[in-house]
Amino acid sequence: MSFRSYGTVDSQNNSPCRYDPGHVCIFYSSIIYHKVAKFESAIQTTLQAEEKITPGRIGTVFFFPKESYQILHDKPPRWGYRTAFGRAEGLIPKRYLDMDDDGAEYESEEEM
Question: Range of 26's domain?
Fold first, then answer.
């Protein structure tokens, strides 16, 4: 057993869904507002350590936002925040766009 949990809670209906370690919950998590109730990681067993399995929970997203990727793939970090995702592009002087959030200028592209 790699964790102890008491399940998920659908807060719209306040209904719990209990599951045990090793169980998988599959549902429309983007539609149903939910949370995972009390979660405690347990001690990793020797077998788990040998197999490089860490205690914890997983989440998987089964879609890829192609339209978002087409817009954002060549943009610098924090472009969306600084330009209101393009709506304010051209309104903000370039010297401000080339600064980090503390107002200091980036020394190189790698620091962005």
Answer: 3-50
